[in-house]
Amino acid sequence: MRRTSLATSALNVLLRPATAGMRAPDRAFDALVVKAERKTRAHAVAVPEFVDDLRLLLRSFAACPGLSPMGWHEYELSRYGLTAADVGAAFGDYADRYCAA
User: Fold this and answer.
1) What is the pLDDT at residue 63?
2) 32 vs 67 pLDDT, higher one
3) Count of domains forming the chain
C-alpha cells in the first residue's frame, strides 16, 4: 500500500523549490525579516526576543527529518511502541474499505 497518493507525490516534486529555505533557514528567515520590515516600516531590532525565537522555530522546522512542502512526515511505528499488526488491528477495516492497494 502506498504511503502517499500520486497527487501528493506530484505536489511534493512541484513544491521542491520551496524547500530551499529548509536547506538554508537563516537565509530564508533573513529575507522574511527584510520583507516584513519594508511592509511594516518597522525594525526587527525593536523586538529581538521575538525575532530570535521565531528564527529558532524556523530552524527547528527545517531540521525536522521527513518534512515535505506539504508538511507531512513519515513516522516509524516503533518510535510509538506500535507494530504493523497493531495498526492493522485498529484500522484494518478502514484501510480495506478506503485505501487502494
Assistant:
1) 80
2) 32
3) 1
Domain annotation covers residue 53: yes
pTM given for the model: 0.49
Which domain range does residue 72 map to? 6-98
On whether the CB atoms of residues 5 and 12 are closer than 8 A, the answer is no
Span 43-70, mean pLDDT? 83
Instruction: Tell me the CA distances in angstroms from 27 to 34, 39, 79, 94, one per residue in order.
Output: 11, 19, 32, 44
What whole-number distance in Å separates Cα of residue 14 and Cα of residue 12? 6
Angle at 67 between CA 8 and CA 38, to 5 degrees: 100
- Among residues 8, 6, 28, the alpha carbon closest in space to that of 19 is found at 28
Distance CA(89)–CA(40), nearest Å, equals: 53
